[in-house]
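F.,

This is the one I mentioned.
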């Protein structure tokens, strides 16, 4: 009987020790989870973190050519921080790709207003936006300073070639498009634009050929 009583007391003591350990372990786990939850909540509500999450999400959508989603995310970032120049700049890019010229111009101009360092980088993009609207002279004005500073910029010459193509100035268009391909033979947009140039040139030649019998003097091209 004494032996069983001793075993009983020993088991109780062991149970208490183990129970205490389990309780401490449980409290530690609960406290850890509480801390994680607090940090997660703070991260979700911290405006700086939230705006960067929207911005990075916008960049990811932009990379995948998901323009509508990108625009929403950049707008969300701007809603949190109306002075977020980088978000305005990327929003302008999304609008350009989405062929929304007027909105792109507004976004780029706001980006430059908030962060003047964007002025040079946004010049070509602004020129493209104005060209999309058919305002070719304004587009050319935007590129004057860039042309002086970056005469070997393939994208600049590609943009100039496209603008002159829009103005139906085939001579200047060809000069700039050939320069674009000289500086960057792999520039896809330059290849597309030069194909448009060749098509336009052929159409002009065809029209002039058809018009020759109606003209009093021969044409010299």
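My design for it:
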């Amino acid at each position: 009987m004494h032996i069983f009583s001793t075993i009983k007391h020993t088991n109780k003591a062991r149970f208490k020790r183990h129970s205490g350990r389990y309780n401490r372990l449980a409290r530690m786990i609960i406290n850890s989870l509480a801390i994680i939850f607090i940090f997660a909540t703070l991260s979700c509500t911290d405006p700086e973190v939230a705006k960067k999450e929207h911005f990075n999400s916008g960049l990811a959508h932009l990379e995948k050519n998901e323009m509508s989603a990108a625009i929403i995310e950049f707008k969300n970032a701007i809603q949190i921080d109306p002075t977020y120049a980088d978000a305005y700049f990327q929003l302008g890019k999304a609008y350009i790709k989405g062929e929304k010229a007027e909105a792109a111009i507004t976004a780029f101009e706001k980006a430059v207003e908030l962060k003047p360092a964007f002025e040079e980088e946004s010049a070509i993009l602004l020129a493209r936006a104005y060209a999309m609207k058919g305002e070719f002279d304004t587009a050319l004005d935007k590129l004057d300073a860039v042309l002086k500073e970056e005469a070997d910029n393939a994208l600049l010459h590609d943009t100039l070639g496209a603008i002159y193509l829009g103005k139906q100035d085939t001579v200047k268009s060809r000069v700039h498009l050939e320069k674009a391909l000289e500086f960057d033979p792999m520039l896809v947009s330059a290849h597309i634009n030069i194909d448009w140039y060749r098509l336009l040139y052929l159409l002009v030649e065809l029209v002039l050929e058809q018009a020759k019998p109606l003209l009093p003097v021969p044409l010299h091209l």
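The chain is about 80% helix and 0% strand.

Talk soon.
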